[in-house]
Every structure is written in structure tokens, then in C-alpha cells.
Write a structure and sequence with these properties.
single chain, 290 residues, alpha/beta, 12 helices
Length: 290
């Protein structure tokens, strides 16, 4: 079905700078260092903004902040909070699945977890309330028939997870995928960036009980092709069936040659540029074949 390549929209600048401020505040308390970091990030963004890939640009400034502050995991508390929120909602989610155990319901549950996103929202967001109020939302783009066809056709899927906390909901979809006799390989970030899931978070969520876990070989926000390790590049190239969670992974995938692959994006559209790209309203749930 294809999708338009996503380049940085003017709104992405303000969003990335908000992330920059938040990452700086979480990483250090030295006011002089904060000033230098912000100035250098602004300069870098000004020089590289036009025609940039938004998740790649956000990755680069976050990596710079991490390097200069020596703070390897600024969002560790937020990731713990995300896990707590997700686990607190699982009993209610399981009641929904008990009522309707179909594939589409599992997809919607996985997508509602994508709300747990400190890259798109700020640290003061009422995530529990947001997720709770969206538990029964329908899909605005619903390619579930094509998705089930892929599950019946392939024997293995590469699952690109997104955020900590969110992966608790992904686990429920992975359990459903296993019913189709599909082997699942979960790909996480090699190192912390914002609240993206790494190996520790995936194991804590129990994903290792259901799937093989691999890393991208980089600490990118979403998929940034040029940052892949050689091992992950080989795995990605050989994968014929891919599930991609979240906006940053979707942004990165729009830049890549996906010919010959069944690729499905599962996300909550949380910003205007992504919503325009997908022709949906902000806050929409999307299961789209790319």
C-alpha cells in the first residue's frame, strides 16, 4: 500500500526542542552546562533541520546530551513509572480480552500502550487516565484482514517494539501471534534513549518467555537505518514480515526500501505531521500495511 516519506515538518522543531529541554533537565543540574547544551542543540538543529528525518534528528541531539552530561539513562524513573502504569491496567485489559479475544482486540490493546510515550508527551502527562479513556477506541486505519493473512502466511515476524511500559501491552499481542504458530523476534534499543525499551525492560516484561530478543545495535529513537549494527542489518534484510510499533519507527521505515516485505505499522498518531501523513485525526489508532 505504501506510505509517503516523512521529513521534518515545521512543528517538529518545537517538539524536538521540548524533548531537548526535558532531557537536559533530567540529565544534569549545572545551569551553565544546560545553557551550553541548549545553544549547541539549537545550532545543530538550525544547520540540519530542513529535509531532515525527524526521529533521526531527535536521536542525534539526545545522543549529544547523553554524551556531554555522562547521564546514560535520564528517563530511568519515567520508564519505571511507565511499567507501573501498564501493570496497573492489565487486569482491566484482560477483562476486555476475555469479552472479545479476537486478533483486532489484541491489536487495539497493543496500540493503546503506544500512548505511553515521553517523546510525544511530557513527563507530567496523565498517562493512566489517557490509556484508560482510550481502551475501547476503534481503529481509524484497520488493515487487520491483511495482518491476519500475513500471520497465516509467515512462520516468523520481526517485532520492532517502542517504549517501556508499552511492551507490557505488546506481550499480550505477542501471545496472540504465537497462536498462529509464528516465531517472534523482538528488537529493542541497544542503549537508553528517552523511554524506549532496551533489553532490561523487555526481560522485565517477560518478553523473553515468548520470543527471542535482539538489539538494533544502536540507541536510536525509532528506526535509523544508517545506525543499524551489521547483525541487525542482516536480520532486517532477511525478514519478510515486520511489525513496527510507534511513530518514530514508522518515520524511519518510510525512508526505507520495504519491497518484498509484509510490514505493518501499529501506532497511536500523537502529532499533526504523522496524522496528516496518515490522513487521520490526532489521537487515532492505526494498523496500516506499508
Amino acid at each position: 500500500m505504501g506510505c509517503a516519506i516523512i521529513k521534518s515538518n515545521y512543528e517538529c522543531g518545537a517538539c524536538i526542542l521540548r524533548q531537548v529541554k526535558e532531557a537536559i533537565d533530567l540529565s544534569c543540574s549545572d545551569e551553565n552546562l544546560k545553557l551550553d547544551l541548549m545553544q549547541n542543540c539549537i545550532i545543530y538543529m538550525a544547520e540540519n533541520f530542513k529535509d531532515s528525518q525527524p526521529n533521526e534528528l531527535a536521536t542525534e541531539v539526545n545522543q549529544y546530551i547523553k554524551e556531554k552530561t555522562k547521564c546514560s539513562d535520564a528517563y530511568f524513573k519515567q520508564k519505571e513509572i511507565s511499567d507501573e502504569i501498564a501493570l496497573s491496567l492489565i487486569p482491566k485489559v484482560k477483562e476486555i480480552l476475555k469479552t472479545n479475544n479476537c486478533l483486532e482486540t489484541h491489536v487495539k490493546v497493543a496500540i493503546v500502550g503506544n500512548i505511553l510515550d515521553f517523546g510525544a508527551y511530557n513527563v507530567n502527562t496523565d498517562f493512566k487516565g489517557l490509556i484508560d479513556s482510550n481502551l475501547n477506541k476503534n481503529l481509524s486505519i484497520n488493515d487487520v484482514d491483511e495482518f491476519e493473512e500475513a500471520l497465516n502466511h509467515h512462520d516468523e515476524v520481526l517485532y520492532l517494539v517502542d517504549n517501556a511500559g508499552e511492551i507490557v501491552f505488546d506481550k499480550l499481542l505477542i501471545e496472540k501471534i504465537k497462536e498462529y504458530d509464528v516465531n517472534v523476534i523482538v528488537a529493542v534499543k541497544s542503549g537508553p534513549i528517552v523511554n524506549d525499551a532496551c533489553m532490561k525492560e523487555a526481560i522485565d516484561a517477560g518478553l523473553d518467555e515468548l520470543s527471542q530478543i535482539v538489539t538494533l545495535g544502536c540507541d536510536s529513537g525509532g528506526i535509523v537505518e544508517k545506525m543499524f549494527s551489521d547483525d541487525f542489518r542482516k536480520l532486517f534484510d532477511e525478514s519478510k514480515f515486520i511489525i513496527s510499533k510507534g511513530m518514530a519507527n514508522y518515520e524511519g521505515l518510510t525512508e526505507m526500501d520495504l519491497n518484498g516485505k509484509d510490514v505493518f505499522a501499529l501506532l497511536c498518531s500523537k502529532c499533526t505531521p504523522i496524522s496528516k501523513n496518515l490522513s487521520v485525526d490526532i489521537g487515532s489508532f492505526v494498523l496500516k500495511k506499508l
